């Protein structure tokens, strides 16, 4: 995360178990973000020099690394697109359609609904209200730890 002009938190990436973060700093003398653990966490630190050496020495690892970065870039682009949408309903539908799995575009909610609200760039009251409205209208279903489209 980093701080916006008014001191607000801007979450740029939420790393999950087994994921990398701060990889954009590999060729930077100073990184512009802070990492904040939201729960008890173990972190493996890899120096930029070690990672660069591995990329040079192991073509298979280099291809895997490029693939990982490409997936992360697609995720970030999708998030930017979602955050440009005006309404909470549009953002929720975009999340389900772009990130959801299966015929009902099911998205597992990692963390709390407050965490989801922050990821969607909404305050939690707006998210709660919009989810309830969409559920009453038969547009979505909320199941244990997941959201899905009703088609």
**N-to-C order of helices and strands:** EEHHHEHHEE
Shape: globular
Derived from helix and strand composition plus strand pairing, the structural class reads: mainly alpha
- Strand line-up in the sheet with most strands: 3-5-4
Enumerate how many helices there are, as a single number.
5
The span between the termini is 36 Å
Q: How many discrete structural domains?
A: 2
Task: Name the features.
9% strand; 3-stranded antiparallel β-sheet; 151 residues; mainly alpha; 2 domains; Arc Repressor Mutant, subunit A; two-stranded antiparallel sheet; single chain
Q: What does this protein look like?
A:
It is a single chain. With 151 residues, the chain is mainly alpha-helical. The chain folds into 2 domains: 1-84, no CATH class; 87-151, Winged helix-like DNA-binding domain superfamily/Winged helix DNA-binding domain (Arc Repressor Mutant, subunit A), CATH 1.10.10. It is built from 5 helices and 5 strands. Helix 1 (48-57) crosses helix 2 and helix 2 runs antiparallel to helix 3. The radius of gyration is 18 Å and the shape is globular. The protein starts with a strand and ends with a strand.
Secondary structure layout plus pairing:
Elements: E1 2-3, E2 9-10, H1 48-57, H2 59-84, H3 88-99, E3 107-108, H4 113-119, H5 124-136, E4 140-143, E5 146-149
Antiparallel strand pairs: 1-2, 3-5, 4-5
Helix pairs in contact: 1-2, 2-3, 4-5
């Amino acid at each position: 995360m980093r701080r916006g002009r008014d001191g607000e938190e801007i979450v740029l990436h939420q790393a999950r178990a087994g994921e990398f973060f701060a990889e954009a700093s590999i060729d930077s003398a100073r990184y512009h973000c802070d990492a904040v653990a939201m729960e008890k966490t173990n972190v493996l630190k890899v120096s930029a020099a070690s990672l660069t050496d591995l990329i040079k020495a192991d073509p298979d690892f280099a291809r895997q690394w490029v693939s990982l970065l490409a997936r992360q870039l697609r995720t970030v682009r999708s998030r930017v697109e979602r955050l440009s949408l005006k309404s909470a309903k549009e953002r929720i539908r975009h999340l389900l359609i772009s990130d959801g799995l299966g015929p009902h575009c099911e998205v597992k909610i990692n963390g709390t609904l407050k965490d989801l609200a922050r990821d969607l760039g909404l305050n939690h009251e707006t998210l709660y209200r919009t989810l309830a409205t969409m559920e009453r209208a038969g547009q979505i279903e909320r199941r244990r730890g997941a959201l899905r489209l009703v088609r």
